Every structure is written in structure tokens, then in C-alpha cells.
Amino acid sequence: STMEETDREAVATAVQRVAGMLQRPDQLDKVEQYRRREARKKASVEARLKVQSLINLSVCGCHVMSITLNLTGNEELRKNHLHITFREVAGNHLIYIESKLCCKIFKSGLSHHQTQSVCFFSFFAFLSVPEIVRETQDLIERGELLQAHRKLMDLECSRDNLMYEQYRMDSKNTHDMNLIHTYFGDMQKLSEELAKQLWMVVQRSLVTVRRDPTLLVSVVRIIEREEKIDRRMLDRKKQTGFIPPGRPKKWKEKMFNILERTVSTRIEGTQADTRESDKMWLVRHLEIIRKYVLDDLLVAKTLLDQCFPTHYDIFNKLLNMYHQALSTRMQELAAEDLEANEIVSLLTWVLNTYKSTEMMGNSELSPEVDVNSLNPLISQNVVDQLLSKYMSTLTSNIIGWLRKALETDKKDWIKETEPEADQDGYYQTTLPAIVFQMFEQNLQVAAQINEDLKTKVLLLCLQQMNSFLTRYKDEAQLYKEEHLKNRQYPQCYVQYMIAVINNCQTFKESIISLKRKYLKIEMEDTLSSSHTSMDATLDIIAKEGCSSLLDEVFMDLEPHLNELMTKKWLMGSNAVGTICVTVEDYFNDFAKIKKPYKKTMTIEAHRRVVVEYIRAIMLKRISFKNAEERKEGAERMIKEAEQFRFLFKKLAAGSGEDTEGLCDIIEAIAEVIKLTDPSLLYLEVSTLVSKYPDIRDDHIAALLTVRGDASRDMKQTIIETLDQGPSQPNPNYVPIFKEITVPTLTVPKLLK
């Protein structure tokens, strides 16, 4: 048979070759060497034959598959088998490519043993690719990520080695390269699927680290493996120019990007409300951010840090991400159209809360977090813009609030019920309390931000207070004018005017207290002028108020004052008794005026009563006919001076006011009238003038007219002589006569 013939030919050829080798005796020593060489040749040939048969097998497979599909002509069959067919065809082609590579490797000098290993390892890898892909998919779905990744690495390694060899042998053959790529197409999807699982864990890392730290550690290990492969591939690219598709994967970089996005989303997602749904939306939003960030960083420091290699510097990286995300969010909020209170909430949070112990300054975060090295969340420029907007909004708000407060207060002035009294019984309205409560609130708010803003707000409050007091003064004046048109209205005019006067004292005290509480000593000077101006305005309001109240008293006293120094008075009218009762009655109300103003009122009332009394004398309504009348009139005057003295001593009780001096003037005038010896008249008058140097000639003329016994020449002589006399007034004497005018129409008639 043919086989036997071939065997015989082979034996004959072998004998011939051995004979050729052993022609000399010394060649017998090398028999062992020849045997080894021939064994190697034999193995080599066998390997070539195996490769050749593999190639033939794969090519045949391809052809058969192709012919089968074409011959059937069955479209349905073709569709059903297309994927499998392509997969098998591609697989066979790859075995074909692999075989070609093995031949080239073989030619390039690898031993037959190495070539066999490459060929058969790859061959079995190809046969099992679909199987491994399925297994890996299952592992991913079951969440066994480490094992899944191990299989994925094996697959990638097979593909990458095959591609690398193809590249080395024939880098221009893109057709074969694409075929390899296509055959391993599912592997790329696996890689993406695995990555998706990793990023889900990374996104939830702060939750995962508490529940299942092992899972997070596995993810970090996978990323580390990939980083290592990336480095290896990049090194090989430097040396050979070849890098497999999809490399470098840069999964570490992607992980940090995912973390960064997660942090941003976490910060943005904390705004639950809008201004329309909740006035406190911003306060709530900022508080949730504070809580979340602090909790997250504490977890990151205590738990997360342990799941990552040190060179990841995970805590500091996260800290920077949170800082950056917060900075972005705060800038977005700052750009919104914020109201004044919202600007304060934002700035307080940004400038104070953020670095406080409630957040970044929390003791559990140190020493890793150093608040002094944290950059500002928003630039100084943005802070200044916000502060400027706040101040302008606050200015218009304060003006509005003050106007509204005054309008509300004015409505009280016309009520038919008395104003409230404070704990000491002094009448008051709520105006000072409302105004200063508003100032206090705004100052406390400003103090949360910084000292500088607090000072600015204080200056603003006092500046607006200054303008407000001018309006207050005008309104009080209008109140008085309206009342004078009809004195029956408003019913409680006196009581509310007292409240206005008392408010002046409260305002003064409140300004001092506000400055003491909110102003640094060194800033005192900047406010002294506006403070002086406010005090002056308040004094004017109080003084005009007191004056208008005394006008009320004297309007009621007018008919009784008109009775003084008349025939009726001389005959024994009770005008002064009525005057005293009326004054005392009014002063029962005036007891509700606070001390500094009440004392002024008493002094002023006392002074005006005396002035009106002397004015009555100077009106020359009576001229005594004889010594008897003069004596009677003078004694009545002395008695009435004593009544006034008693009344005002009673009214001024405890105020330390000297009430003696004023009534002494009435008594001194009475002495001039009482004098019985006309030759001593000059002396008596000159004593009067030396005590009260503001007495004018017309006063003396009027006084002598009332006496009724001095001739025109005597008056002339006395007046002319007096002008040379020395004056020795009491140093405490306040001129009183200069206020008193003497009617001139009757002077010529009397002097005749």
C-alpha cells in the first residue's frame, strides 16, 4: 500500500543520512549530539504540520459556513443564524489569523514549544470568549464586581496580546486588526457595564461606606488595577507605538469627576422651597446645606478615608470639591434678587457660619480642616455689592417704617381715651419703643455680619432719626394749631401733649443706650454732632410742648387775670383764688410729665403767673384815690403774692426749685404803692430799680400812676434822677420786666 511504500522510503532516506554522518571514526563520539539535533528537527516539522492543519481546518470551516448560507437561499435561516454564524466565522478567521501569526512567530525564532503555547492558548481563549462574556455578565448582575473584573481582565489580555502580535507582525493590516476588535466587541460593552456599576457605588460612596465598606474597597481595588494596566500600556506605547483600543481608561480620573458631580448635585438639591412658598426659604436652604456638608465631611474623615489608598488624598479632594460646589452655589444665590433680610442671611452664613464650629470649624474635623486656610466662598467685590444693596434697601425701609410709625402714633393723639402710662405713671405713646425696637433688630442683624456693617447701620439709624425728629416736631406743632382752632377737640389734647413731651426724654435715653451698646468709644466723635443736633431738636419739641400746655392754662386764666387791679378786685374778688385752683388742677395732669420737663414747667408757670400779675398792674386799670385805698390794695397784693408762693412751693415739692424770688417782686412793688410818706417815694423806687435793673421808665411812670398821688413833675424828677443810680441786682435774677409792655395810648392823658 501507499503507506508502506512511504515508510520504506523514509527508512531508506534515514539510513542514507546516518551513513553520511558516520563516515569517520571520530564522528561516533557525536552520536548523542546528532540524535538531539534530529529530535528537534522532528518536533519542528510536527509543529509546522499542526499549524498547517489548523489553518486548513479554519479556512475550510469558513468556506463551508459561507457555502451553506449561500446554498440554502433561505432568508429566514440566514437571519436566525446570522449572529452565530458571524461569530463562528469571525472565530475561525481569527484562528486563521492566529495561525498566520504563529507561523511568523515561529519564523522569527521562537522555539516550537513557545509557538505551540501561543497558538493553543489563544485557540482555547477564542473558543471560550462567548462563554466568559456570559459568565462575566452574570457576575456583574450579581454584584460580584471583583470576580467580574478578573474575567474582564483575562479577556482584555487575550485581545490585547493578539492585537499586539498582529501589530508587530503586520501593523498595516487593518482588516485583520478590525476582525479581532469585532470578535471581542461584547467585551467593550462588559467594560462599560462594569464601569456603570462602579460609578453607582462611587455616587453613593458616603452611604455605602456606612452600610457596606467592603463593596467600596472592591471598587477602589478595581480602579487601582485599571490604573496599573493603563500605566503598563502607556509604557508599551512609548516603546512600540501600540496601544489597545479604549486605553487609557482613566478610571481614577472618572471616579473623581463622578464624585465632583455628586457633590454639586447634593448642594444644589437642598433647596426645597422658594420665596413664594416660604419666606424663610433661604435660611432653611442654608441650614440644610450646613448640616449635609458637616455630616458628609465627618463620614469622609472617619470612614471614607480608610477605604482609599493614601495617595488618593480622598478627604482633602472631597473637602475641595465641597468648598468649590458651595462657592458656586453661594455666587448663584448672591446673583439673585435678594431682599434685605435674605442678604443678611446669606452674608452671615458665608462670612461667619461657614468657618464657625457649627461647620468647618467643628473640632472633629480638625486638624485636617484649617478654617484659616479656606478661601472665601464669594469674592470681596460680591460681598461689597451685597452690602451696598443691603444698605440702600435698609435706608428706604427705615424711612418707610419711621413714617408709618409716626402716622400710627398721630392716630392715637385724637383718641378719646387717655394715653398709657409707664410703670412710674408717666404718660407715653408706643412710638419710641417701636422705633428703637426696629433699630435694635437691624443692629443685631448687622452685628451678625461684622463690626463695620454694625457701625454703618447705627450711623444710618441715627441719621434717619435726626430727620424723623424734625418731622415729629412739625407734627406736634400742627397738633397744637389744630387744637387752637377748637379747644374742645381733641378731647385728650393735654394728656397726649404730655406723652409727646415724655417721649422726648425716652428718645434721649434710648439714643444714649443705643450708642453705648453698639458704638465703639473711638467712634463717639463721628456721632457727637448728630447727637447734639438730635438732643437740641428733642429739647425744642419738649419746650414747645410745655409752652403749649401753659398756653392752655393761661387761656383758661385769662378772664380771672383781667379782673386783677380793677375796682372789682379792690372790692374783694376771688380772682387769685380761682387762678391758684385752676393752676393746681392743671398741674395734677402735669404730674404725669417726666422730671426734667416737669421742673421746667413749674418754674415757667410760676414765672408766667408773676409776669401776668405785674402786667395787670402796668395796665393801669386802677388808680388809687387815697392812702386808705393804697394800703388796702398793697396789702391785697402782698397777700396774693403769699398765695402764689404757697401754691408754687407745693407744686415744686422735692424739685429743689427756689420759688421765693419771683413773688418778692410783687411784694417790692406793693411796698412802693403802700408808702405813706411821698418824700420817701424816690428812695423806695430807687431800691426797686437797683434790685430789678430791667425796669424801664414807662414801668415806673405806670407804677406811679397806679399810686395816684404823684404829680407829673414828681414823676419826671424821679425818673431822671434814677438814671444815675447804681444797680445791685441779685446774681440769680432773671429779667422779668423786659417781657412786660406798658400801653402807651393813655400815657399823655395821665401825665397832664
How is this structure best described in words?
The protein contains 27 helices and no strands. The protein has helices spanning 2-21, 31-72, 75-107, 112-141, 145-170, 174-183, 185-203, 205-211, 213-240, 251-268, 281-302, 314-334, 340-351, 380-413, 431-449, 451-485, 493-518, 524-561, 567-571, 575-590, 595-618, 627-651, 660-674, 681-691, 697-707, 712-722, 747-751. The longest helix has 42 residues, at 31-72. It is rod-shaped. The termini are far apart.
Give a quick precis of the structure.
The protein has 752 residues and is mostly helical.
Which structural class should the secondary elements be placed in? mainly alpha
Spatial gap, N to C terminus? 192 Å
Total count of helical runs of at least 4 residues:
27
Strand runs, count: 0
Rg is 58 Å
Largest sheet: none
GO molecular function: SNARE binding
GO biological process, one term: exocytosis
Subcellular location: Cell projection, Growth cone; Cytoplasm, Perinuclear region; Golgi apparatus; Midbody
Subunit structure: The exocyst complex is composed of EXOC1, EXOC2, EXOC3, EXOC4, EXOC5, EXOC6, EXOC7 and EXOC8. Interacts with EXOC3L1. Interacts with BIRC6/bruce. Interacts with MYRIP. Interacts with SLC6A9.
